[in-house]
Amino acid sequence: MRKLKVEELNRISVEEFKATEKMPLVLVLDNVRSQNNVGSVFRTSDAFLVQKIFLCGITSTPPNADIHKTALGAEYSVDWEYVSSTAEVVRRLKEEGYFVFAVEQVENSLKLPDFEPESDGKYAVVFGNEVKGVQQEVVDLCDASLEIPQYGTKHSLNVSITAGIVIWDFFCKKRMA
């Protein structure tokens, strides 16, 4: 078995990426404080054709050296927008016909493996601050909450890991079906 060289990976250009049909999934980062986490979310979003990322509150925006360090240029390919209020973004997305999930541990949350997206549905997922999670005000505005089941002694995951799991799950269910 031989590792592939970069030239053999058939990567598309930023221009081709911009023109490629995206998964009907929008991400909202609610006060994510780590620029490395933000960059990681950009990189995963590029890999799985996420439509857009909203950066809210204290979440850093490109251009930023720490975001770039983990995004590896994905901040140029994935569409993004900064809006100071996460609540404003959630209201806007709902008006545009998105079903909005908070990714949070709440009463009556929907376990991610049990979620089946509608074939023509448009979805947005809100990821919260590394310490405080998604703001309660924002949780209250969302249509529902998704939760990743966890079985160890810790019941939290790094926000970029959480985003990766949720994005991959959506991608498998929406694009590979």
Which class best fits the helix and strand makeup? Answer: alpha/beta
In whole angstroms, the N-to-C terminal distance is 29 Å
Proportion in helices: 25-40%
Rg on CA atoms, Å: 16 Å
Query: Major sheet: order of its strands?
Result: 3-2-1-6-4-7-5
Order of helices and strands: HEHEHHEHEEEHEH
List the helices and strands and how they pair.
Elements (H helix, E strand, L loop, with lengths): L13 H6 L3 E8 L4 H13 L2 E7 L8 H7 L2 H4 L2 E4 L2 H10 L3 E5 L6 E2 L11 E5 L8 H6 L2 E4 L11 H17 L2
Parallel strand pairs: 1-2, 1-6, 2-3, 4-6, 4-7, 5-7
Compose a concise summary of this entry.
The chain has seven helices and seven strands. It is an alpha/beta fold.
Walkthrough of the structure:
With 177 residues, the protein is α/β, with parallel strands linked by helices. The chain is 36% helix and 20% strand. The chain is built from 7 helices and 7 strands. It has a 7-stranded parallel β-sheet, sandwiched between helices. Helix 2 (35-47) packs parallel to helix 3 (65-71) and helix 2 (35-47) runs parallel beside helix 7.
